[in-house]
Each structure stands twice: as C-alpha cells, then as structure tokens.
Amino acid sequence: MSDTAQAALRFLQALERLPKYTGIVFHGLPSIPRLAPARWTRGVTATRRDPRIATENFSTPAIAAIVTRTGRDIEPFSTHPSEQEIVLPPEVVLLEVARTSLPDGRPVVIIEQLAEQDPSASLPPTLNALVEQVQLTLQSALESPDSPITTRGKFVEPFFFLDEG
C-alpha cells in the first residue's frame, strides 16, 4: 500500500472515531445536481452548519441542505474553526426529499442521508417541518452580515456519485 493510501486510510479511521453529528448542514452547489433516486457519494464531502459560509455568502447558483446522521464535526481540529465544518464520510447514501428556493428564486435541494436514525437527535418530525426549518435557517443567514471566506471553493463543488458519468 502506498504512503498516500495509508495516510487516507488513517484519516478515515480517525474520522470514524469522532462522535457522529446529526443535523442539517449546507453545501454550495455550482449547478443543480441529479440526486434522485438515492445515490452514494465518493470520498469525503465538506459541509457547514452555516449556510452563509457554505455558499460563500450566497454566491452559489444552488444550495444543498443535507440531513446528516453520520457526519463528523472536525471544528476542534480545523485550521479555521470558524468554518464549522462537518464532513460526511465516503459512501454516504443520499436521497433528495424536497426542493425549495431562496427569495430570489435560486434552488435549494433538501437531501436526506439514508442511515439509522438516532432517537435522541432533534430533527424535524415531518417533511414539511424539515422544509420550514431549512427555510428559516436560510432566511436567518440571509439577514446576517457577510462572513469572511477562508478557503474559497472548499464548500462549493458538485456532488460526485459513483454511478454518474
């Protein structure tokens, strides 16, 4: 096994030891992805708890709001803790469950991770409540001042799926 492969394996093993993060996270999208039916991701996906930073101050054409159940909060280990980064491990199964939009019409794709639910997690109990919570979070972020962007492009990339060309 190469040094790079060993380093990647050690990184993934370290991620698995971190506590799971359950909640809604955000990822900026350069375009609207094709997410239905359920697909699984390749590699680690960087997301944020704060939609303003995930979208580089709402400069992206689209936004993904993701209900994660197995994300890992790496903020304590980050060079930029203010990024509030939650990473999704590789091969997370995602399913688009709804779409909404920002007041200016830009699409917001609401995605749910298909994984065992944590009964202690406080997620919205219905799809309508989830859409409402995403809209409220986005509205609050839209009303807040711009955030400094420390790592351009880190949270704004297409989702890559194993079965797409």
Give your account of this protein's structure:
The protein has a single domain (17-143), classed as Toxin ADP-ribosyltransferase, Chain A, domain 1. 22% of the residues lie in helices and 29% in strands. It is built from three helices and seven strands. A hairpin with a 5-residue loop joins strand 6 and strand 7.
| Span between termini | 28 Å
User: Biggest sheet, in brief?
Assistant: 7 strands, mixed
**What's the total helix number?**
3
Overall SS class: alpha+beta
- CATH class term: Alpha Beta
**Residue-averaged pLDDT:** 85
| Estimated helix fraction | 10-25%
Radius of gyration: 15 Å
- Roughly what fraction of the amino acids lie in strands? 25-35%
CATH architectural group: Alpha-Beta Complex
Order of helices and strands: HEEEHEEEEH
CATH superfamily: Toxin ADP-ribosyltransferase, Chain A, domain 1
Count of all domains: 1
